[in-house]
Structures are given as structure tokens and as C-alpha cells.
Design a protein that fits this description.
The complex is a heterodimer of chains A (about 280) and B (about 260).
Chain A lengths: L11 E10 L2 E11 L4 E5 L6 H8 L7 E6 L2 E2 L5 H9 L1 E4 L11 H12 L4 H14 L15 H12 L6 E5 L7 H18 L2 E6 L2 H7 L2 E6 L2 E7 H7 L2 H8 L15 H9 L5
Parallel strand pairs in A: 3-8, 3-9, 6-7, 7-8
Antiparallel strand pairs in A: 1-2, 1-4, 4-5, 9-10
Chain B lengths: L1 H30 L3 H4 L1 H12 L3 H25 L6 H39 L2 H7 L4 H39 L4 H11 L2 H29 L4 H30 L4
The chains are: A alpha/beta (about 280), B mainly alpha (about 260).
């Protein structure tokens, strides 16, 4: 986990990011840095734009303001060719796995290799089997994506994400909807991939326990801004009222239980008045 | 009243927005057309799933449309003692109009809706995003092979429809109603012109193939990524394609068959 990288410049830098969807501001001046070779987890409530952040880092969306740098390159300003070159060094694990449904497991993992390299078939076969062995699914190579459980699909997707030996992997909600055993497998895999391949991992999650257990650094976001960030210990120690509520899952606190509305009393009294259309 | 005008304006604006997105999409599709050569294997796969799998419905419909044409044509023509011209009438109706138009409508229902559902599902399950993140352009990998396969399959299917239809007319006209077999085909040959009729029909079907496949793929890409969105997009494809085909047919007929 604590691999010493030769290059200690941050891998990803997000500066004053503004992003709107319609009239809603998803990000409003968000800034964060992701150190190289470590596991950084971005946590926040549902709808706080965590997945959107990954898409902005991957260049699938353009920010309305501010900048996103990956490896010293400003993502939104890259030409298509250079963006694709950057993405070859970036793996992304989607929540659903996003395997191509018209290919079996083997072909899915072989896909990036076939698309981006001219390796002979024999070598591709060996590489794919190595990647599948790493996620423990070498025996499942002939299954179609429809025959896989959610956890298995995610493991195949991980094998595919590391097929081209990227420098960084983005994980979109890797722990959501898994049984305890599969959860354990995924947690171990993320940790192991990070340590063995020495790559930068960016996780997006709201599973506090698992995420805190494997992260070097956490970033808590809500309302389009960073609420707190730092090492796991530091964030736990100085926990503000908001982070305390989030990390411990309290139903009420700075984030109110009730959706904002008019006063309860007024609402009830109004319903007693006669209706006139 | 103001409310009505506002709603009208709103839906008008939305329509133009869709048209804009569809045009941009078509532009990007055309820019990526080199994929037809580079990924020819994918085109072959798509011609199979779009074209070959539509054969049955096209063939059966062609046969029945031809048979009905043979029957109805005979009833009218025999009153003027021109039953011999049946072959020409059947062939002209099929090659000029019914072949391209009915094939396009069936094509929209069979292949178009399948294309939309497939692509919308790929979008919903993040497969398109995954391709982009793997530095693979979905336009080249997914859309162009399907688009080209659609444009290529449509005239072939229309030709098949017309050919089977002619045979259907023959079965009813010659087999059941007693028109002379020789004059069925000689009249057909005499009345049908290669340039004016056959080529015009082929041009029509290429245009319909282009438009229907474009609409189908665009609806898939533009679909809201939910189960509801997929079903809405599929319906939209069939409705919009059908209207586009009928509208374009009117325009193309006007351009092609003036004063002949």
C-alpha cells in the first residue's frame, strides 16, 4: 500500500471544479488531489456526484469551470487522440461491470489487448489467462456475461481494466450490492492490485467501513464541495459534525431527516380548508 | 391560451434540440465511416443480424403482398379486357412503391427496433461508456458497422421483396385466375423500364435504409438510460421511421416520376 513512487507529483489534481446538470450545480468549487501509488476514496451521500467526478477525471464529461489534471495533462483540453492515449493508461471499473454482452469472459478481457496491441494470439491467450488467474476466474473463461453473478462480473471487469497494465484505476462503487464473501474478495483484490502493480487507485463509495479499511486517503464530499479530506486517521480524529454523522450513519444531524418544506403545522391546517378549484 | 402557446413552443424547441443532436450524431457517424474498411468483419456480422435475420418476414410479406396485388389487379384489369397486363401492373407497383416502402416499414419494425433496443441497453449497462474509457471509439466499433450494414441490407431486402412479390402475383394471376404465363412476363418486361423504374426503386430503398438505420441508432444513443427509456426509444424508432419513410416516399415519388 505504501509503495514509494519515483515520481511524487500528484496523479490527479482537481481545481475549483464547477459542473452543472441543467440548473443544478453538482460541483461548486471542488478541489482535491490524488497522490500517486495510493488508494484514495471519495465518499459522499448518494447523488453527491461521485460517479460524475470519475467521468470528469476520465474526460467523458467536460467541466463548466475549473480544471482537472491527470498526469500533468489538462483533461478537457486534450485532443481526441491524446485523450485516448491517456485513457489507455487508465482503467475504469464500472459498478455493473459493463462487460460487453456479445462476448464471453475470455474475449472481454482480451478486448483491450486486441484493440490496442498487435500481439500474437498465443501471447494474448497467456496474458488473458494471467489476468483471469489474478482475479480467480480462469475457470470461468468460457461463460457469457449473463451467466455471471454481480461479484464475478466485477472481477472480470477488473481483469479487463488491468489488461493493458494501466497506471491508475478508477473504481465506481465497487462494494455496492455484494454478499459478505464477494465483498471480501473485492476488497482484497483492490488492495492487492494496488500494492502489486503499484498503481494509483481512486475509489468512489459510500460503504464507509470497507472504504476506510483499505484507503490511504479519504475525501468526503457533499453539496458540491469537499467537506473533509486527509488520511483515514486524521479524518476520523477531527471529525466535524457533518463527517461524524456521515461516517457513523446517524439518521439526523447537519443533514436533516426531513426534506425541506413548509411547516408541518401549516400544512395540516391548510388541508382542513375547503377546496376551491 | 398562453399556457397552450408556451407548451407548443416548448415542444417545438425540444423537437429542434433532438434534430440538432441527431444531425451532430450523423455528422460524427459519417466522419467515422473509415471503420467500414478497417472493421469489415464487424460489418459482416451486422449484415447477418440486421439483414439475414429479416429475410423471413420480408419474404413472407412480399409473397402475400404480391398475391393480393395479383388478385386485385386482375379484378380491375379484366373489366377492360386487359388481364394480360397484370404482370406489368404487379411489377410496377412493387418495384416503384410497395417494395421499397413496405420493406422499409417492416425493416423499421424488425431490425430498427432491435438496433435501438440493443444500443440503448448497451448505454444503460454502461457498455458504451466502458468502450470510451478503454479508448475505443463507440462510433467506429458499434455504430458505423451497424449503420453501414443497414444501408447495405435495405435495398437487397427490397429487391427480394419485389422478386418474391412478382412470384406471388404469378401464383394467383397465372396459377389460379388463368392469365397466360407468357404474357404475364412479357408485359412485365415491356412495361418496366430499368432506369425509370428499377433504379428509382433502388434509390428509394437506399434512402429509406439510410434514414431508418440513422433513426434507429440515434434513438438508441439518445435514449434515457433506464428500462422505461429503452422501451420508449424502441417505440419512437418505429413511429418516427414509419412517418419519415412515408413522408420521404411522397417527396421522392414527386421528384422521380413526374410526367412519365
Amino acid at each position: 500500500m505504501h509503495k514509494v513512487s519515483v515520481d511524487d507529483s500528484p496523479h490527479v489534481v482537481v481545481e475549483d471544479l464547477v459542473f452543472r446538470r441543467g440548473s443544478k450545480r453538482i460541483f461548486d468549487g471542488l478541489s482535491l488531489t490524488v497522490p500517486r501509488g495510493q488508494i484514495t476514496t471519495v465518499m459522499g451521500p448518494s447523488g453527491s456526484g461521485k460517479t460524475t467526478l470519475l467521468r470528469l477525471i476520465g474526460g467523458q464529461l467536460r467541466p463548466d469551470g475549473g480544471r482537472v489534471w491527470v498526469d500533468g495533462q489538462e483533461v478537457a483540453r486534450l485532443s481526441n487522440r491524446r485523450l485516448f492515449a491517456l485513457r489507455k493508461r487508465m482503467g475504469m471499473l464500472f459498478q455493473s461491470g459493463a462487460l460487453l454482452t456479445d462476448m464471453n469472459v475470455f474475449e472481454n478481457v482480451a478486448f483491450p489487448l486486441r484493440e490496442h496491441t498487435d500481439l500474437p494470439e498465443e501471447l494474448i491467450r497467456n496474458l488473458v489467462l494471467m489476468k483471469l488467474e489474478a482475479v480467480g476466474l480462469r475457470g470461468a473463461r468460457d461463460l457469457s456475461p449473463a451467466e455471471l453473478s454481480g461479484g464475478m462480473a466485477r472481477r472480470v471487469a477488473l481483469a479487463r481494466a488491468i489488461a493493458l497494465d494501466p497506471d491508475m484505476i478508477l473504481y465506481d462503487e465497487p462494494f455496492t450490492g455484494l454478499d459478505p464473501i464477494t465483498m471480501g474478495q473485492i476488497v482484497t483484490l483492490i488492495q492487492r492490485t494496488n500494492r502489486i502493480l503499484g498503481l494509483t487507485s481512486v475509489l468512489v463509495s459510500h460503504d464507509v467501513e470497507e472504504a476506510m479499511a483499505i484507503s490511504d486517503q479519504v475525501v468526503l464530499i457533499a453539496d458540491g464541495r469537499v467537506m473533509d479530506s486527509g488520511t483515514v486517521e486524521a479524518v476520523r480524529e477531527r471529525a466535524s459534525a457533518w463527517s461524524e454523522q456521515f461516517l457513523n450513519g446517524r439518521p439526523d444531524g447537519p443533514v436533516p431527516f426531513h426534506y425541506p418544506g413548509s411547516s408541518y403545522r401549516d400544512d395540516l391546517l391548510r388541508s382542513a380548508e375547503p377546496k376551491h378549484d | 391560451m398562453i399556457d397552450f402557446v408556451a407548451r407548443l413552443g416548448h415542444s417545438g424547441l425540444r423537437w429542434f434540440a433532438v434534430l440538432g443532436r441527431a444531425s451532430t450524431f450523423l455528422f460524427r457517424l459519417l466522419l467515422a465511416l473509415d471503420a467500414v474498411v478497417r472493421r469489415f468483419a464487424l460489418v459482416v456480422v451486422e449484415v447477418h443480424s440486421i439483414g439475414v435475420r429479416s429475410l423471413l418476414i420480408i419474404g413472407v410479406s412480399g409473397l402475400f403482398v404480391g398475391m393480393v396485388l395479383g388478385y386485385q389487379g386482375y379484378i380491375t384489369l379484366v373489366q377492360f379486357g386487359a388481364a394480360e397486363a397484370l404482370g406489368g401492373m404487379v411489377a410496377l407497383s412493387l418495384v416503384r412503391e410497395l417494395g421499397p416502402v413496405v420493406t422499409a416499414l417492416l425493416f423499421a419494425g424488425r431490425a430498427g427496433s432491435a438496433l435501438t433496443a440493443e444500443i440503448a441497453l448497451m448505454k444503460t449497462t454502461e457498455q458504451l461508456s466502458a468502450l470510451e474509457m478503454m479508448a475505443v471509439d463507440p462510433h467506429r466499433r458499434v455504430f458505423v458497422p451497424r449503420f453501414f450494414a443497414g444501408v447495405l441490407s435495405m435495398p437487397l431486402l427490397a429487391a427480394l421483396f419485389s422478386a418474391v412479390g412478382v412470384m406471388g402475383g404469378y401464383i394467383v394471376g397465372v396459377g389460379l385466375l388463368g392469365v397466360d404465363s407468357g404474357s404475364y412476363f412479357s408485359q412485365m418486361q415491356a412495361m418496366t423500364d430499368w432506369r425509370a423504374d428499377v433504379v428509382s426503386g433502388v434509390i428509394k430503398s437506399v434512402v429509406f435504409g439510410f434514414v431508418v438505420t440513422w433513426i434507429a441508432i440515434f434513438q438508441g444513443v439518445d435514449a434515457e438510460p433506464t428500462a422505461e427509456g429503452i422501451s420508449r426509444a424502441t417505440t419512437q424508432t418505429v413511429v418516427v421511421s414509419a412517418l419519415a419513410v412515408l413522408g420521404l416516399d411522397f417527396v421522392l415519388t414527386g421528384l422521380m416520376f413526374t410526367g412519365s
